[in-house]
Specification:
The structure is a single chain. By secondary structure, the chain is an alpha/beta fold. It has one domain: Rossmann fold (3-Layer(aba) Sandwich). 27% of the residues lie in helices and 28% in strands. The protein has 5 helices and 11 strands. The chain has a 9-stranded mixed sheet, sandwiched between helices. Strands 10-11 form a two-stranded antiparallel ribbon. α4 links the parallel β8 and β9. The protein is globular and about 45 Å long. The relative contact order is 0.19.
């Protein structure tokens, strides 16, 4: 069983707002507000993709319980510059707290949406989510075979209609867990317990822990943070998907 645990001290070094969007590929991107059809309704979502080339890996991004804030759009743009087609799906368009079954169907329909695009390789799809989206990543990565890798940001492995820890036995795709030691809603001890359960089940995962960082640390006042911690965490996610999706 391979586990990577790294502790980073989160000092603040503010950088220009476009810093996260500057990647080695330097790809130009196109963006659009779109509707993802699911359960007979159009979910207000956001898409960013390289302007040319491909096919690229496709990523479904699940925002936090606070909604599809501007910071997630900024992150989606930066993600796309790295050679991914990224769909930030607005899962709260019609309900603040939809059922797990509703979210599962929306994710299946998001997979179908990406798979139909000429610039997406349907065999290279990933899932990432933040806060409640982190829980959904932990919950549905094991249950939806379409996803070849996932990154769960400050999720909740022991909450919900079905607890993600209870579906570990179905997990076949590699998962990266990103968390902060000062997370009050989702204490770090629960994440370590979840990591232990993954280890006991012989499931592959990587764990990146940031010392002193609170819940939802990638966004501040609805905007994407641009400091050293945010850049490192973003790079960890991109690198993981590059390694695992090819």
């Amino acid at each position: 069983m391979r586990i990577m645990t790294v502790l980073i001290l989160g000092a603040l070094f503010l950088l220009p707002a476009a810093a996260l969007a500057q990647g080695p590929e330097g790809l130009e991107i196109t963006t659009s507000d779109i509707g993802v059809q699911s359960n007979g309704q159009a979910y207000a979502s956001y898409l960013a993709a390289p302007s040319a080339g491909g096919p690229y890996p496709g990523i479904v991004l699940i925002h936090s319980f606070r909604g599809l804030e501007e910071g997630y759009r900024t992150m989606t743009d930066a993600f796309a510059t790295q050679g991914f087609v990224v769909l930030a799906v607005g899962w709260q368009t019609f309900e603040q707290s939809p059922s797990d079954a509703t979210v599962e169907q929306l994710l299946r329909d998001s997979v179908a949406f990406l798979s139909e695009r000429d610039d997406v390789d349907p065999d290279r799809l990933g899932l990432t989510g933040f806060c409640a989206g982190g829980r959904y990543t932990m919950l549905f990565l094991p249950q939806l075979d379409a996803f070849g890798a996932g990154v769960a940001w400050y999720g909740f492995p022991y909450q919900g209609e079905t607890q993600p820890v209870d579906v570990i036995d179905q997990l076949d795709a590699p998962m990266l867990i990103i968390h902060g030691t000062a997370d009050s809603p989702s204490p770090i001890d629960a994440i370590y317990d979840y990591a232990g359960a993954l280890t006991d089940a012989d499931k592959y995962f990587e764990l990146k822990v940031y010392y002193g960082e609170p819940h939802g640390f990638m966004l501040e006042n609805s905007q994407l943070r641009q400091d050293e911690v945010a850049q490192d965490a973003f790079r960890e996610m991109v690198d993981f998907f590059q390694r695992k999706l090819g």
